[in-house]
Specification:
Elements: E1 6-13, E2 30-33, H1 38-46, E3 50-58, H2 60-65, H3 67-79, E4 85-88, H4 95-112, E5 116-121, H5 125-130, E6 135-139, H6 146-162, H7 169-172, H8 189-202, E7 231-236, E8 240-242, E9 258-261, E10 273-275, H9 283-287, H10 295-303, E11 309-316, H11 324-340, E12 345-349
Parallel strand pairs: 1-3, 1-4, 4-5, 5-6, 7-11, 7-12
Antiparallel strand pairs: 2-3, 8-10, 9-11
Helix pairs in contact: 1-6, 3-4
């Protein structure tokens, strides 16, 4: 009698599932038999021990805007294949896709009690959201690294399916999860610390056992000497946009920001403005958008002569799940625009 193969279900977005591009981003979850797209490469890398018995596809936009519903729908489709493991992606640096991959895998682990893993670029917002709960194989920032990613994914999948011990992130190729495990070392900690110190003093290579976090440090500008002569601009990551969201800023994992004219506008009314943000209850922001972008208060200060003027435009994006790389790019572009316009200070609001 032939030995039973492990059963795997693969989650893909509409693009890698070969349904379509952004025009199909709002499709709800659907299931197909067998492997599709990147699944064909995974199938080859898995070899005879495991087979991809089904693929579940969902549009990135649909999932981002309906996370709980989409996750539940996806799980119902996954259950029908009776899998031993769920794999998602790779998502590379696609923020909405990465968030969906993480949500699907966590749900598989919690609801179906089976292992799951995904793969994405280190700066994908899905990494920060799910790395403590999931094995996330590290990839490049685009599909150009697909060939390198799939064998690493397959190797880790097989270890999980066999119930084998998973090694260090550097050995297995996954992103560090911030989990510490006790091991028996050949030298006591004091001796290892001295060895590292000696290597550092000599300029020799060494690997720290406790990598330190890296933080951006930005030197603050000098204070404004006279606010009565200052032009103040409004910038928000709270997603306030003109009604209808003309720039189609995404509710999660934003890839753009908007610049909107408020010359002559004293109040951001509910009729003319709304929030595009998908990470908080929009009710209060939609009822009075000034709660997120306080134009009404700045106009009062302007009339009272406490500031010279409010800049004629405000800038808006969505901070929900937006990648560090995109955030830095938005900030640099907005700052350059404000600098060229002679703006003295920015009031930056969130949610």
């Amino acid at each position: 009698m032939a030995e039973r193969k492990f059963r795997v279900v693969h989650y893909l977005n509409q693009f890698f599932g070969q349904v379509g591009g952004e025009d199909k981003a709002n499709i709800p979850p659907e299931a197909r038999d067998g492997a599709l797209g990147p699944g064909m490469g995974l199938k080859a890398a898995l070899g005879p021990e495991a087979e991809i018995v089904g693929t579940v596809i969902c549009g990135d936009g649909y999932f981002a805007e309906n996370i709980e519903t989409a996750t539940a729908q996806t799980m119902e489709l996954v259950k029908k294949f009776n899998p031993d493991l769920v794999v998602a992606g790779p998502a590379f640096n696609a923020g909405r896709y990465g968030t969906a991959c993480g949500a699907v895998c966590v749900a598989a682990q919690e609801q179906l009690k089976i292992p799951a893993l995904t793969a994405m670029f280190a700066e994908n917002p899905g990494v920060d959201l799910y790395k403590k709960e999931l094995y996330i194989v590290a990839t490049g920032d685009s599909a150009a690294s697909m060939r390198q990613a799939l064998p690493k994914m397959a190797a880790l999948m097989l270890k999980l399916l066999r119930g084998e011990s998973i090694g260090h992130p550097d050995e297995e190729g996954y992103i560090a999860r911030g989990i510490r495990k006790n091991i028996i070392a050949d030298k006591p900690g004091a001796a290892r610390a001295v060895d590292m110190l000696v290597a550092k003093v000599k300029g020799e290579p060494f690997t720290s056992e406790l990598p330190m976090p890296k933080f951006d440090r930005v030197a603050p500008n000098p204070p404004i000497k006279d606010m009565t002569q200052a032009t103040i601009a409004l910038v928000t990551s709270g997603g306030i946009v003109p009604s209808g969201n003309p720039d189609r800023i995404e509710a999660s994992s934003a890839t753009k920001f908007g610049k909107y004219n408020i010359a002559g506008v004293d109040d951001l009314t509910s009729e003319a403005y709304e929030t595009a943000h998908g990470g908080y209850d929009p009710t209060y922001a939609n009822n009075d958008p000034d709660r997120v972008v306080p134009l009404d208060v700045l106009r009062d200060l302007e009339r009272e002569g406490k500031i010279a003027q409010v800049f004629d435009y405000f800038y808006s994006t969505v901070g929900n799940g937006t990648s560090v790389a995109n955030s830095a790019q938005f900030g640099a572009e907005i700052a350059q625009d404000l600098k060229e316009a002679g703006v003295d200070a920015v009031l930056l609001t969130s949610t």
